[in-house]
């Protein structure tokens, strides 16, 4: 999910990925391991963004560089970061424009600021 989250603010196209987490409430939920799935998911990852984000959330289990040989230990660490770390509350901030996306009950509100204003004025 994090790989797909970037700002949707019009004209913000510089430094808009990854969004930066702030003031988070992080919950760890153990999930059954499916290391084959994790291995197949690796090509879809933006490795540097994932490692930076995991570290900003307090997890240092992933190596700086993506390893070429995929050990079971590495796949388990990646499973933990991708499948077990959940941001329940907090916010994500765009480094490009500074827009804040609140997170409540584990769900980020990705509605653009202009749409929020329009929705409020139309109600």
UniProtKB/TrEMBL annotation:
Residues in coiled coil: none
Record Gene3D superfamilies: 2.20.25.10
A GO MF term: protein heterodimerization activity
An individual GO BP term: rRNA (guanine-N7)-methylation
Similarity field: Belongs to the TRM112 family.
PANTHER family the UniProt entry points to: MULTIFUNCTIONAL METHYLTRANSFERASE SUBUNIT TRM112-LIKE PROTEIN (PTHR12773:SF0), UPF0315 PROTEIN-RELATED (PTHR12773)
Protein name: Trm112p-domain-containing protein
Species assigned in the record: Kockovaella imperatae
